[in-house]
Amino acid sequence: MAGNNMKIAQTFLSLPNADATEADVLILPVPHEKTVTYNHGTRKGPNAILAASEQLEFHEEDKNWAPTRHLKLCVLDAVSDDLLSAEDFHQQLYTRVKALNPHALLIALGGEHSITPDMVFARMPKGGTVVQIDAHADFRESYHGSIYNHACPMYRIRKQGYDLVQIGIRSLNSREAESLAGDEGITTWFDRQLQHPENWQALLSQLASLQGDVWLTVDMDGFDPAAVPGVGTPQPGGLSWHQGLDILDALTQNKAIRLCGVDIVELIPESSCVSDMIAAKLVQKSFSYWGKAQGFDRREANGSQTGVEDD
Q1: Does residue 154 belong to any structural domain of this protein?
Q2: Nearest to 189 by CA among 229, 131, 108
Q3: High-pLDDT (> 90) share of the chain, %
């Protein structure tokens, strides 16, 4: 596939960007698409999410505040994969993320799921837990001859010693199943299993008991394709919108963890724009839930919304 030369929209909610060194929330577009194996178009995901954000209200109803009155946002320049080898691209992504303000919440917009490990390694160098919403285990050691394939990110992450909590899994091969079952550092909540209320509550309890550094990676195919049809490799079943928000709420309300970043990947824009809007709303929910839990609502109202009409 040729490199993508598209220009990425540079704002979220059409709000002016704060300086990256002063922003509370950094939004990083990563329109990387080199290894997709079914539907194509994940490179268009970041643009679609940013464009859909223009249709969101500033007020966030769940936490009952307007987070951008208090939070400063910055949409960063996209990480380009033009003319780079796979190894060079992933090194560039690691270097870019490593240089970002560690105190800001990083929200990355993919692109394919292969981007996640490099950001985790850069943001959580001492280890931690990766919480994965996904239809697929993504636990192949390599696929189509590459460790950088979108079928491999969780294997790469676990190989470096990070714990995994996998949620909504409903597609994997026999070798992946054996590897997951034999590893005490991995908890896999299969989609069918989560249809039982007692298992759903057990998952939320596990998330509420996590400690240390945590990264949340959201492959949009983790949601029910009836709600999110625009994904690279759809599978029947999956999480509802509100289940996704329950996971986000459990993590942001947990005072024993530091949420180091969120990535939202594998979105493919579609004509109804429903998938695009859900992803954009998930970005907003992420920084709203996080910001409210961190007490930013008690800070002076001089965020990105300052001076902007809320009509």
Answers
A1: yes
A2: 131
A3: 89
